[in-house]
């Protein structure tokens, strides 16, 4: 098989033979396991589609372990003088800035950044401890007008905003990999398939609030940003070869312009298992227990689930205990924290019992009902959804773009539930744009949707309940 000389496959070979001094020795690592914040890792890849050609990965050189940053492990910036030096160096650098963050999810309260990593040509790699400063606006000013490269930007942008940083433009390597049609889009997987490096990811779920940070963690953090510029080059080449660069550019601009999502209304309703409650007093108990847990967790800077899990909140709402022994006998109320705070949990339950402000069991919104009930509530809408879904799947396969990136699933459900009237390509395009679809998504999906919504396939007759239960 002949591979174009400009392809990522060819560049990966060249890079691995000419640019890896100081990056460790070749090896064949075992597949890494899934960790929080990354996509699940399936079986190792045997091939990858590059420039429209399926390349057997057995043809690629052996993976090279990235063991040490090119410039060594930088010291952590945790003083004002060091922060000013960092800002000056970054401002004097050239080209885009690779940016990443580490959080202490599951250990500390909230999702704030515990380490910010930045690398820029001519400036080197900088590891900044944001906990040591009121904010990092000086770094944001130093990168004014500079393109940022992030992987899975939607995870990093909120905590970067929390320290006063926000890009003018960005390139998201995870989103680019999705649009390019790569089968795995975690950073480690994309780096392996396009660059031929093995990037260890075992520290991504660590407690990054630890001080001082262990040297292996700092090495891991520095390597994460070291590969991003090189990875961007490969992904740009893939996107341009497939005519998808404009799609990606619109997605990146949308991330920047959308800003940080607004806080959820009644976030306590997302307590796992709360949907099983059918009593408003019990639901009020979930609210009071959840809010009590949030206040305690914030004051102690600890992840709420480390006080009591969601299952304990639901168990207490169902049991409504009135004594400490009865409370501690419930599932989930174990450990020092549950016992120490038992009076607070009981007070929350009693507050719910006495409340005159009982929450409704269901919150009205303009979202469509779950698709499983469409056939009963609106058979015509069910027929529309049953028609558009497989056709969108075919278009997704044809374009080699995941269906959820081709069009947000919520948009697809909304336009299927209540399409415009009359249904034309123009009215469908307008409704998609109003929902928030990007121009490239409207261009690719509106013709298909207009036809499918206007002329849906007949809905298959529902089986009698006896047949459903038998099957």
Q: What keyword list fits this structure?
A:
471 residues; alpha/beta; six-stranded mixed sheet; two-stranded antiparallel ribbon; 47% helix; flat
Describe the model.
This protein is of the alpha/beta class and 471 residues long. It has 21 helices and 10 strands. The protein has helices at residues 8-18, 80-92, 137-142, 153-162, 173-180, 187-195, 215-226, 228-241, 245-258, 280-300, 310-319, 324-328, 335-340, 342-354, 374-377, 379-399, 403-406, 409-417, 425-435, 439-454, 465-470, and strands spanning 47-50, 53-56, 64-65, 76-77, 94-103, 113-121, 124-128, 147-150, 169-172, 197-198. Strands 4-7-6-5-8-9 form a 6-stranded mixed β-sheet, sandwiched between helices. A two-stranded antiparallel sheet has the order 1-2. β8 (147-150), α4 and β9 form a beta-alpha-beta unit. It is flat and about 65 Å long. The model is unreliable at 1-38 (pLDDT under 50).
Quick description:
The protein is of the alpha/beta class and 471 residues long. It has helices at residues 8-18, 80-92, 137-142, 153-162, 173-180, 187-195, 215-226, 228-241, 245-258, 280-300, 310-319, 324-328, 335-340, 342-354, 374-377, 379-399, 403-406, 409-417, 425-435, 439-454, 465-470; strands at 47-50, 53-56, 64-65, 76-77, 94-103, 113-121, 124-128, 147-150, 169-172, 197-198. Helix 6 (187-195) crosses helix 8, helix 10 (280-300) packs antiparallel against helix 14 (342-354) and helix 19 (425-435) packs across helix 20.
